[in-house]
TrEMBL record:
This is DUF480 domain-containing protein. Belongs to the UPF0502 family.
Length: 226
């Protein structure tokens, strides 16, 4: 992978992508708006508490990598930031609307299942069904010259495998997954043999997906009302 990002750089790029789609009237973003977006309590994992000075340092690093552009608008002294991560004349990374939505969510929240992605991405792109999500994920896995996402090993007791982007060091992602799997194994004895427990876990995943979809619809309605 030609592009390697830190977790905080992923957050900044994710926010720029998200806001360019969901609130285009407020894009490009000021330093203040970008900082608020990074520290947002909803649709972020993990939660962060970055200062404007920290964001400026991150932007300097991203600017060196040519992944953002800082400009001052006509008649304004306030710097505005735009992303050059994908779908711009400056870079080679070209993504569809659905691929961009998935990549944005993975940058903002880390590894997620197809069901979670479908619910959370609806505010940025339309997915008609789960097959549509899985098709987009498959295309990101097969992206040339380098894959952009990878399917992680399914965790014990989970119905769906999670997917992660490949813009951070792979070993750190793998380590986090292994730790999570180990913890699950310590707390859940023989999950595959416990039918009732598996049923409950599947039900929780289904409810989580439904909540994500409802949240996305509410955000769309709120934007229309404003």
């Amino acid at each position: 992978m030609a592009i390697t990002l830190t977790d905080k750089e992923c957050r900044v790029i994710g926010v720029l992508l998200e806001k360019s789609i969901t609130t285009p009237e407020q894009y490009p973003l000021t330093i203040n708006a970008l900082t608020n977006g990074c520290n947002q309590k909803s649709n972020r994992a993990p939660l962060m508490n970055l200062t404007e000075e920290e964001v400026k340092t991150i932007l300097a690093a991203l600017n060196t990598k040519r992944l953002i552009q800082v400009s001052t608008g006509f008649g304004s002294r306030v710097d505005k930031i735009t992303q050059r991560f994908c779908n711009t004349e400056f870079g080679e990374l070209k993504l569809t609307e659905q691929q961009t939505a998935i990549m944005t969510e993975l940058l903002l929240r880390g590894p997620q299942t197809p069901g979670e992605l479908r619910g959370r991405c609806q505010r940025m792109a339309r997915f008609s069904d789960m097959a549509d999500v899985e098709s987009s994920l498959a295309s990101l896995q097969a992206y040339q010259p380098d894959p952009l996402v990878e399917q992680l090993p399914r965790e014990p007791g989970k119905r769906e495998a999670r997917y992660a982007h490949l813009f951070t060091e792979f070993n750190s992602v793998r380590s986090a997954v292994n730790i999570s799997s180990t913890d699950s194994e310590q707390h859940i004895q023989a999950p595959e043999e416990d039918t009732q427990l598996n049923h409950l876990l599947n039900k929780v995943e289904q409810l989580s997906t439904q909540v994500c979809e409802l949240t996305a619809r509410l955000e769309i309605l709120e934007r229309k009302n404003h």
